[in-house]
Design a protein that fits this description.
With 138 residues, the protein is α/β, with parallel strands linked by helices. The chain has one domain: Arc Repressor Mutant, subunit A (Orthogonal Bundle), CATH 1.10.10. Helices cover 51% and strands 17% of the residues. It is built from five helices and four strands. Strands 1-2-4-3 form a four-stranded mixed sheet. Strand 3 (57-65) and strand 4 (68-74) form a beta hairpin. Helix 4 (83-98) packs across helix 5. The radius of gyration is 15 Å and the shape is globular. It binds zinc ion (ZN). Zinc ion (ZN) binds next to helix 4 and helix 5.
């Protein structure tokens, strides 16, 4: 499909609103680009990404950061994973945002937390499968 956003267009939409180093940011752009444009619009408008050293990745909702609705934190470690695993991690966190999931401290019960995790896994997997089926000529 020729109407998919380019990396430059996604970069422009993010407009420097992130706290990742160059390499992490490049991988984030490449990962985001596999998604449909309407989802990319939401991501670039509503999510602030940054790097938090250790751990894996997490996302929490916010109402207080310049109109951003979620903050997604990545540890530098996830960028050392295989491309597939790294993309899955990034998309899993983005899926929490798209599904409008609550922060784990705001939901009661381990079952609800597990349900949200399963839903995010499922959507991330669907995005990856859809992208691998599509022929990208861009
Ligand atoms: Zn999760």
């Amino acid at each position: 499909m020729n109407d998919k956003y380019t990396l430059e267009e996604i970069n422009y939409a993010i407009g420097g609103r992130h706290g990742l180093n160059d390499e992490q940011y490049r991988e984030l752009l490449r990962t985001i680009r596999i998604l449909d444009n309407d989802i990319i619009d939401k991501i670039t408008d509503e999510i602030f990404f940054f790097d938090v050293g250790k751990g894996e990745a997490w996302r929490f909702p916010t109402k207080h950061l310049r109109g951003m609705k979620s903050i997604i934190c990545f540890s530098s470690d996830i960028f050392k994973f295989s491309i597939k695993k790294m993309q899955f991690n990034i998309l899993h966190e983005i899926a929490h945002h798209i599904l409008d999931h609550k922060c784990f401290v705001d939901i009661s019960g381990i079952d609800n937390i597990k349900r949200q995790e399963k839903e995010a896994d499922k959507l991330a997997k669907e995005w990856i499968e859809k992208a691998s089926r599509g022929v990208d000529c861009g």
